[in-house]
């Protein structure tokens, strides 16, 4: 009974005591700015007008190529634009050693068209190594011999 009274007293004390938060450090002093009762005129910022130059016949062309002997990365691309017609070509070496060449054109009238062709092996292709693996002989376990099961022995209770 004493335990219950002690527990209830502890619960009553903790629920009735105020929770006081202690600060971690000193706070900066509070500053108060005077209230300004003036009239400020609202002025809209001037509108920024940008002029975009329109090129009725846009033209560009670029070319790049990569030939990295350490990684075997060999590819090239060239593209040019004359008005609304884009023409280009790119090529690269595939894993089997052939070179894939793609010639493409794109225009509003015909859409995107590409012609893909392959050329013979350019890079050396390593021939696969043929390994002959001997078949594994199947192994069988001998059958497990089980002794005949004896009849269960029932012991009579001893009421000594």
TrEMBL record:
GO MF terms held by the record: structural constituent of cuticle
Organism in which the protein naturally occurs: Chironomus riparius
Protein's UniProt keywords contain Signal: yes
GO CC terms: extracellular matrix; extracellular space
Pfam families: Chitin_bind_4
Keywords: Cuticle, Signal
Signal peptide start and end residues: 1-16
Protein name, entry field: Uncharacterized protein
Source organism superkingdom: Eukaryota
